[in-house]
Amino acid sequence: GEDVEQSLFLSVREGDSSVINCTYTDSSSTYLYWYKQEPGAGLQLLTYIFSNMDMKQDQRLTVLLNKKDKHLSLRIADTQTGDSAIYFCAEKVTGGFKTIFGAGTRLFVKA
Amino acid sequence: DAGVTQSPTHLIKTRGQQVTLRCSPKSGHDTVSWYQQALGQGPQFIFQYYEEEERQRGNFPDRFSGHQFPNYSSELNVNALLLGDSALYLCASSLGGTGEGYTFGSGTRLTVV
Known about the structure:
heterodimer, A: 111 residues, mainly beta, 6-stranded mixed beta sheet, 5-stranded antiparallel beta sheet, 11 strands, globular, B: mainly beta, 4-stranded antiparallel beta sheet, 50% strand
């Protein structure tokens, strides 16, 4: 089956690191993504990782992929109040064209 | 360089009516996907258009239909509106067969009363 699961909420203090976790069920996923959604806006692609990679780093963002456990994580270093938003994990399934999204993790950053 | 443009931004319709939402993809993109996002949930895939054809459809009834034009812009049509169709409708553009992710528009907020 095709499903992406995320925890619903995460609260961190400004300056700390945030780690948002995601599990997916389709072992044949080719690409995995993290998107950010701010209030009243569409989704913004933050980063993506191809399924043959274990890690990808992009400035303050680090993505870790554990294919054996079908687990994806997004680490945000030095979290700022402007990082407060909903973060969506998503997977592009092999053999199709659609991208499937999780329900989103709402990140609260306390000053 | 304009991103994805959607119109209108907000819409209020009555049950049973029909609605058309419009999307212009990011310059250079040729593929348009439509998603429905209910409050507090993740986007749900409606369908994807490429080369003016619907090439994959999600679990949505036939009341939802679409079109893609030669300039890659797209429309989403919903007939016989139900209260449950109230949601944010998101258009996402991408380039053909690449997996490098979507560019999303800001969405159309549809309220059915």
